[in-house]
Amino acid sequence: LLSKRLQAVASYIPKGSVLADIGSDHAYLPCYAILNGLSKEAVAGEVNEGPFRSAVQQVKKSGLQEEISVRKGNGLEVISPNEVNVITIAGMGGQLIRDILKEDQTKLEGVERLILQPNVAAHLLREWLWKNGWRLIAEVILEEDGKIYEILVSEKGQSDSLYTEDTQANLIFGPYLKSERNEAFQRKWTYEHNKRKHVLNEMKKGSKYENNEKIQDLLKEIKLIEEVLNWQD
Ligand code: SAM
């Protein structure tokens, strides 16, 4: 059975799609997408030998060699332009996912939807999507085994008006997540708030408290988090 996290990713794969799952590891996601009638064909991309072999084995074990092509290579290198219409990239840092997307833009030709699950630094992805003509159509935040994950679903299209107001907060917290403010969201940002408070206290103990830019930044972030969590009186 797929993890709650990957199931949430899979729930945004449209029926009849041709999928590329980049950094697929065991290829659980493309196997699930084919077995559940979401995708008709898929590519599982892996850059590392160990995970590549796991993917080959899992695809064979599931009897899906006809439907899933397991390929070894870096990022989008494993697909051709117009080969797939949906790309999933999950379980990596936001910066790495962004770098994979920006490395070779021709590979995004024909891609209609990106489903991205950054473990950290989702704001870097939101910013890249926004500046490169991808609009955010949905976001998910969920907790599994004590960890909190974010999923960004994006479609090629006109410029995204979600960011025209309150840009910074939207990029950091996510425009959908921040208006929904579910339990996982509150937990994440309460934790991030505490973390910053702690750093701030440690810095106050030091001698360079005044005039410190880092402290000003921390104070700004703390205030922003308090505003979003509605802790203002
Ligand atoms: N996508 C799966 C998931 O969400 O459960 C696996 C996540 S695993 C933590 C990250 C995988 O990405 C690893 O198997 C790693 O080898 C692969 N990876 C890292 N950088 C990559 C790149 N540039 N191109 C392709 N795969 C990459």
From TrEMBL:
Keywords for the protein's UniProt record, in alphabetical order: Methyltransferase, Transferase
User: Which Pfam families did the record assign?
Assistant: TrmK (PF04816)
Q: What are the transmembrane regions?
A: none
Specify the superkingdom: Bacteria
Q: InterPro entries, from UniProt?
A: SAM-dependent_MTases_sf (IPR029063), TrmK (IPR006901)
Sample GO molecular function, one term: tRNA (adenine(22)-N1)-methyltransferase activity
- Is the keyword Plastid in the record? no
Among the record's GO biological process terms, what is one?
Answer: methylation
Q: What is this protein's name?
A: tRNA (Adenine-N(1))-methyltransferase
Classification of source organism: Bacteria, Bacillati, Bacillota, Bacilli, Bacillales
